[in-house]
Amino acid sequence: MADSIDDVDFALAAYREDGVWQVQEVAHPVLESVDSLAHALRRFPGDGGAVGMVAVDEDFFVIVRVAGASTRVLLSDVTAADEYELAGSAVAFLGLPVPDDEDEQVPAGDLDLLGDLGMHAMDMGVLLDDVELYPDEMLSDIARRLGFGRLFDDTVGLTSA
Q: 23: phi > 0 → left, psi -120 to 50 → alpha, else beta; which?
């Protein structure tokens, strides 16, 4: 299994404070598991919790949303659990069997975890079906739909000069 900490493209926490989106980078040590990421996200003061977005090795992403005691998870590609610790932890958190080599590249988890913020399950499904997009592009689209696209793009370096 690859050391996914070294393969992290970026990890962000997004949360609303007084109705205004805030985006902060998340330190890599908390990215080894869904539990450690959820624990770190709980320290953000957001109205209605925080959303963690982690892109790994230009291969997959994990979204973790915490609100109070609730933790919701979406993994963009279940087959990543074979190679990456964070993806494996997402599959375990979701109570799914570890995928084998014949499994399809499909998302796992809660497609509607951002529904109340403007990214509904159907839209998420359509986005995840687009095999041409890299994880950072998918997360940028999600951030734009939630209302913090420019902040997201500036933070991860997707903004053109």
A: beta
